[in-house]
Amino acid sequence: MGSVRAIRGERDPSPEAEKRRPSGLGTVTVVLLLASPLLVPFFLFGDRAVASIAADYPVWQRFKVQSSGNASSSRRAERGAHDRLLGGLLSPDFDAATCLSRYEASRRWKPSPFPLMSGRNADGAECKYVVWLPLQGLGNRMLSVASTFLYALLTGRVLLVHEPPEMKGLFCEPFPGTSWVLPPDFPYTDGFSADTKESYVNMLENNIVRYGGGGGGDAGALPATFNWMVLRSDSYFAVALFLMPTYRGELARMFPAKASVFHHLGRYLLHPGNRAWGIVERFYDGYLAVADERLGIQVRLAPFLPITFEVMYEQIARCAREHDLLPQVTGDPGARPASGAAKVKAVLVVSLKPEYYDKLHSVYYTNATSTGEVVTVFQPSHDQDQHTEALAHNERALAEIFPLSYSDRLVTTGFSTFGYVAHSLAGLRPWLLPLPDRNTMRAGVACVRSASVEPCLHSPPSLVCRAEQDLDPVAHVPFLHHCEYVYFGLKLI
């Protein structure tokens, strides 16, 4: 991933940087906008793309590798083992003090189940840019910027990110010697939508640009004719890029294990700034470090389906009971280990609401466990409501994603982008909590194990080049799977 370039920003001024930095749009005539989660796949895909990938599946198979370990071998790894560069994923050329999390985060992750293969550096060429604009909450933003980074890698573009006040210093600079922050005088950061005249969909409708190949099979190469692209999305559209024949070979080389995409992109790109990282360090060292096992429970309620605390808590308890995630309690004094100290299991509860922590803490504070284990329950914060517009709220959210990613086992809400980021960084397949039935207010299945560690693309491409019917990619592409509880969504496996 060392092939990504960035222009030097205000944080790292130099004469060479000023020569490379654009003073404005310059000679650029068009700025492209990908305004919605559906817009990227709308113009990038066609049924021929899916058919081509399905036909060439043996090519993908040649690049496929087996995981280098399993959960048990990870647990046997010494706690002190520390691969600070993540097997070559990170550059050693940073000043560690400017971003403490970059080299320290790996101390608590389990060894990655996805081995890295050496990459290729891009040759010199005229700079083209993709400008990322944030949208929705922190989880959406992390998935979207990682997807944009992958698109930049595939198309040889420089990635620049707009950093509004609520994201100031939230993440470290990811590229040594450069800044990825969009210059503050850049004229296009607000007011874009699918209706904007510069949006790609409007350019198509007005015949300013056209689909290629006559059938829409691989229109994704068209935006390369423009030096500037402005992209706003709240989706993990990296999944959709795997449907494009143009990128098929390169993606196979980059990700021989296709379930490792966000796992590697996120670990490379998204390092908490020192302020947020300090919260992570203090909380982990103070509450979680001494535990023999850590269970993360992340609860995100759907705004479109009112669910009472009692309904959701019963489902969480049922999931934990059915899959031996937590020990049962007893009214007796409880079993004691024959020798030595009792095993300690730490439960990290992450939710905007405090009730789930209160209930679990009360259960295990008041009652002994039948196994003799000691269960401790912690919750870092409970802001009640989401406030993406506030930097302090986003810092707390980021400081909860990382301790979640240090769990040994995870239970997350089935559709939560926040949960996606945590379990993907961890390299863990979580237990996913489905939404209850609207009528009975009870889920038929308490939770189900995710098919992979990858996030879900909630808004998959509609293959518009096929007039009669949409083509389901899952039926034709072996490494795609419908998401467990977003049935129309797609994920890599």
UniProtKB/TrEMBL annotation:
Keywords: Cell wall biogenesis/degradation, Glycoprotein, Glycosyltransferase, Golgi apparatus, Membrane, Transferase, Transmembrane, Transmembrane helix. It is found in: Golgi apparatus, Golgi stack membrane. It is an enzyme of class 2 (transferase). One of its GO terms (molecular function) is galactoside 2-alpha-L-fucosyltransferase activity. The chain crosses the membrane at residues 24-45. Gene3D superfamilies: 3.40.50.11340. The keyword Cytoplasm does not apply. Residues 7-21 have a biased composition (Basic and acidic residues). Its EC number is 2.4.1.-. Residues 1-21 are annotated as: Disordered. It is a single-pass type II membrane protein. Pfam families: XG_FTase. GO terms for biological process: cell wall biogenesis; cell wall organization; xyloglucan biosynthetic process. This is Fucosyltransferase.
